[in-house]
Design a protein that fits this description.
about 300 residues; alpha+beta; 4-stranded antiparallel beta sheet; 10 strands
């Protein structure tokens, strides 16, 4: 179950502070019309009235804080920390409201602070001055702030002696924040190192590309200068691409090739069985010749 504050009440005419904050003469009737009106009550029932951790987002982006903004070329999500689940304004200027802490990082931090009896809520109205009074026109939620203008808009007794000794420290909030900051610093350092590596590789590639472009331009210029010419118009020892051509070496290579092509290759040596067969066939042939000669002589 999500953390809720329970019903908190404060009075628009009594800030509970003598030396801090700003005194404001608020038009109570106008506040009642806005807070108790159908529009605000419908938004509250549907859970669509949000508050933020501090007033910084509203100071920078206006009362209607956008869901996202572009910072440094990146999309940044502006997460709320609480939402109003009940609000009512009474004729004497008393405002009753209940807040629910969201289950996100800002909401969990705000919830832990609230459990530590720290910080409080600050109502956000568009209330221009009319007839010497601040006249509420629209309601934009309750922000969770360090020093609310109305001291009673906290939902707890702000005196330190109402807190058990060591209760705040035992929550470990400061330690968790320090660990979070350490992890953020580590992530930033890692990202910067990666970015530096990518930048160096990119610059090296750019230099290599520049060298290739320069070499290509020089080659194209040389080809352009030599366009339409025959090879024999070049000098006797240098080709178009700059390689060395020595006639003596070329003639030597040609002579070597000619000797190879005209060389007498050795005959194929017959196998032993072929030699033996050839001997036998020779003896037989001689014997037949002798027989023919003998017959012919008869």
């Amino acid at each position: 179950m999500r953390k809720r504050t329970g019903v908190i009440s404060y009075n628009l005419n009594e800030r509970g502070r003598d030396f801090n904050g700003q005194d404001r003469d608020v038009d109570i009737a106008a506040a009642m019309r806005v807070i108790n009106g159908l529009s605000v009550q419908e938004l509250v029932r549907q859970g669509d009235v949000y508050g933020y951790f501090g007033h910084t987002f509203r100071e920078k982006y206006g009362l209607n804080v956008p869901e996202t903004v572009i910072e440094g070329g990146k999309v940044v999500v502006l997460e709320p920390s609480v939402r109003t689940i009940y609000i009512k304004c009474l004729p004497d200027g008393t405002v009753e409201h209940e807040q629910e802490f969201l289950n996100n990082a800002p909401g969990r931090i705000a919830g832990r602070l609230y459990d530590s009896k720290a910080y409080g809520f600050s109502s956000v109205f568009h209330a221009p001055e009319e007839g010497g009074k601040r006249t509420p026109k629209t309601y934009h939620g309750m922000d969770f702030v360090k020093t609310p203008n109305y001291n009673t808009n906290k939902g707890y007794d702000a005196m330190l002696d109402s807190v058990e000794p060591g209760a705040i420290e035992s929550l470990g909030f400061a330690g968790e924040c320090a660990a979070l900051m350490d992890s953020v610093d580590a992530i930033i350092a890692e990202n910067e190192a990666q970015a530096a590596g990518i930048s160096e590789a990119y610059l090296r590639q750019c230099r290599e590309n520049d060298d290739l472009i320069d070499l290509n331009a020089r080659l194209m210029q040389r080809l352009k200068d030599g366009k339409g010419t025959m090879l024999d118009s070049a000098s006797a020892s240098t080709l178009q691409r700059g390689s060395e051509f020595l006639p003596s070496h070329a003639q030597s290579m040609l002579d070597s090739a000619d000797r190879f092509m005209s060389a007498q290759l050795p005959d194929l040596e017959p196998a032993p069985e072929e030699v033996e067969a050839e001997k036998k066939s020779g003896i037989l042939a001689k014997s037949l010749d002798l027989v023919r000669q003998a017959i012919g002589g008869l």
